Amino acid sequence: MGNGLYFGIDVGGTAVKMSLYSSKEDSMVENCSIPSIKNEDENILIGNIVRKMKEMSAEAGVSISEVSGIGIGIPGPVTADGKVLKCANLGWDIVDLTTIIKELTGVENVEAGNDANVAALGEIWKGAAAGYKDAVMVTLGTGVGGGIVIDGHIRAGHRGAAGEIGHITVEPEESEACGCGCRGCLEQYASATGIVDIAKKRFGICKENLTAKDIFDAAKAGDEKALKTVDIFAAYLGTALSNIANVIAPEIFIIGGGVSAAGNIIIEKVMEYYEKNSMYALRDIPARLAKLGNMAGMYGAIKMVIGR
Ligand SMILES: [Zn+2]
User: Fold this and answer.
1) How far apart, in whole angstroms, are the C-alpha atoms of residue 22 and residue 298?
2) Residue 2 has pLDDT above 80, yes or no
3) Phi then psi for 167, rounded to 5 degrees?
4) CA of 216 to the centre of ligand 1 (A)
5) From residue 29, how far is each of 155, 157, 171 by CA, in Å?
6) Is the model's pLDDT at 296 over the cut of 80?
7) Which are the contacts of 307, defined by CB distance < 8 A and separation ≥ 6?
8) Under a CB-based contact definition with an 8 Å cutoff, are residues 114 and 232 in contact?
9) SS3 188
């Protein structure tokens, strides 16, 4: 356990958020952010992160090799043993990230995970699902992401590809392709752009720069077309969650991402369809809005390596 200082690092497409957490104080003692660099040799970005970690640990009065652990979230598939497999968001090919970080820092306790999975772990530790061990988190943003935590641990899956909830097929008759190349993925209806698409294509709602927030606001005000749009979104997502429950049987669902700012209307409508499509043993599972926002990844990264 050592000095109880842990690094949590959340690598995003535009910035890398870094925190130094003290388990003795149960708080972040330092936070900072550096720009992430896309489509460059991965060693440049990794080198920048390690340099910053050295500065931050020096400020806390220790050398980098003395910290108790380093956890890292990456916006792409990461295997259980910490290999990043072709991260399109960073332009990386296959990178054995944990081995590289161990070599550069002298720290043995290093873990890496997919950012959506890591965020789910953060919400289980310090957020909406604190106290639970089995959770599925859905992130509704530009796309639809997913994270699975089983018995307090991230489920990375074969080739790091577990939790890709956004690419569950929910509409086999769809004519347009999803970003993944398939047709009728959940992401095409439950992401911020997906919800706007439903409103435009099925209900002819047209307004310049229409956003998912506009639609939820109108639904709350009782607008019929907006309510129908939300209903279709909820039917796709709620049904998908019931299918997920049939396989994972989580104790709780967490719904996060920018779209979730619409609030409890999402939980109410989605769980209505969840209940309709769930078998008896899986009904009445709680669903909560995520609590930690963009800090979830950092907390989850720390949780991966704490107390090990
Ligand atoms: Zn897809």
Assistant:
1) 13
2) no
3) -110, 20
4) 24
5) 29, 33, 47
6) yes
7) 1, 23
8) no
9) helix
CATH homologous superfamily for 128-291? Answer: ATPase, nucleotide binding domain (3.30.420.40)
Q: 188-201 burial, b if ≥16 CB within 10 A, otherwise e?
A: bbbbbebbbbbbee
Task: Let me know if the fold of 5-114 is the same as that of 128-291.
Answer: yes
Distance 286 CA to ligand 1 centre (A): 27
Give the count of alpha carbons within 13 A of 125, CB side only.
23
Structure tokens belonging to residue 166: 């956004």
Domain spans, the chain: 5-114, 128-291
Q: Are 269 and 97 in contact (CB under 8 A)?
A: no
Residues surrounding ion ligand 1 at CB below 5 Å: 167, 178, 180, 182, 185
Q: CATH homologous superfamily for 5-114?
A: ATPase, nucleotide binding domain (3.30.420.40)
Say whether pLDDT at 1 is over 60.
Answer: no
Strand blocks (E) in 66-200:
69-74, 84-85, 94-95, 110-114, 135-140, 144-150, 153-154
What is d(CA 58, CA 32) in angstroms, rounded to the nearest whole number? 14
Closest by Cα among 221, 235, 307 to 272? 235
Task: Report how far ligand 1's centroid is from the alpha carbon of 77 (Å).
Answer: 15
> pTM of the predicted model, to two decimals?
0.93
Amino acid at 169: T
pLDDT digits (tens, 9 = 90+) for 250-267: 999 999 999 999 999 999
Nearest 5°: CA angle at 290, between 286 and 294? Answer: 165
